[in-house]
Amino acid sequence: MAQIKPNGLRLATQNLARQGLAVFCPLQQASRRIRGQIRSVTKPVFPGYLFVSLAPAGGEMRAASYTRGVARLVTLDESGPKAVPDALIEELQARCTPEGILGPPEADQLDVGDRVWVTDGPLAGQVSRIIALAPEARIWLLLDLMGRQTRVAVKREAVRRD
Predict the structure, then answer these.
(1) Which residues in 61-87 are b (16+ Cβ under 10 Å) and which e?
(2) For residue 150, what are the CA distances in angstroms to 31, 99, 121, 126?
(3) Domain 2-102 bears CATH identifier 3.30.230.10
(4) Would you list the domain boundaries of the chain?
(5) How far apart, in whole angstroms, are the C-alpha atoms of residue 81 and residue 2?
(6) Residue ranges of the chain with pLDDT lower than 70?
(7) Could you tell me which residue ranges the NusG-like N-terminal domain spans (predicted)?
(8) Which residues, listed in sequence order, are joined to residue 73 by a DSSP beta bridge?
(9) What is the helix (H) or strand (E) element at residue 77, kind and residue range?
């Protein structure tokens, strides 16, 4: 794993790929207020970090640590960089779309009555219960808004099990 310099994701990714190293940076969809409007943006799941596949005995570690856009390789002690388990990387890659956007885990199946937390959109931060599951990946929630129970439809990707 490499720590990247501020705003250096694109530069680090390009330069590491030019060296023939496999690079992985899972992304997620989020909502941000931009000029008074709520917009959907794509941002890294692990801001400031990038997974890099390096041969442990090769000169790739030294080259990767001095690559433009890379601040340093992540180490736990003086013995050098530690490998992230392959199973973790494979699980993350399996959950990503072809564009690299991380989806929900398969085990996170939602049912009517489940308590969920809204993570995206103008209702982010609200906790509610699912009252219905609709086609097209929509979920109906019953939210307490301004002292009233209000039925609201949200995207499946915008909620997480509480």
Answers:
(1) bebbbebebbeebeeeeeeebeeeeee
(2) 21, 35, 16, 12
(3) no
(4) 2-102, 114-161
(5) 9
(6) 56-58, 104-108, 136
(7) 3-92
(8) 2
(9) strand 75-77
